Task: structure prediction
Amino acid sequence: MNKNILNLSLDEQQWSSVLPDYKHISEDVFATVINFVFKNEDIDFLSFDKPITVNLSLSNDAEVHTLNKQFRNMDKPTNVLSFANIDDEAFEETITTADEIELGDIIIALETMEREAKEQNISFHDHYCHLLAHGLLHLLGFDHQDDDEAEYMESFEVDILSNLNISNPYKE
Result:
């Protein structure tokens, strides 16, 4: 498989204090998710001999709140938003002609992540890895609109996190 590209944007400087190694961690999660899904799921476009690209923005609650309201009609921040190009009608045509396959955009809100990690009594690092993996799976076409989809997606998350030496976030 060609070298995949994670375009990382640090839109909230506080990220570098809370997760100093955010670049390496993000790239590790990205590679782990792509490789795991490539080996365990039959997704047609992953068989193309083209690099996969993803745009990741490490941002804040204010920005995510704005995007959540604009695109999902939810007037509040959330932990992670994914904007998948696979949902675009022209995606299949685009991937056959483009030099790379751009999966889409992920934006993660710092304050919401910090609060959730404290509430769930898990490390910020582990929660970040989980949410990034979750967002990447959305870009690859996974969803959790019904119980079967959720269970399937969660099983992938658990296995991916296990490969990163992170405990199952869904265990009771």
Notes: The chain has seven helices and four strands.
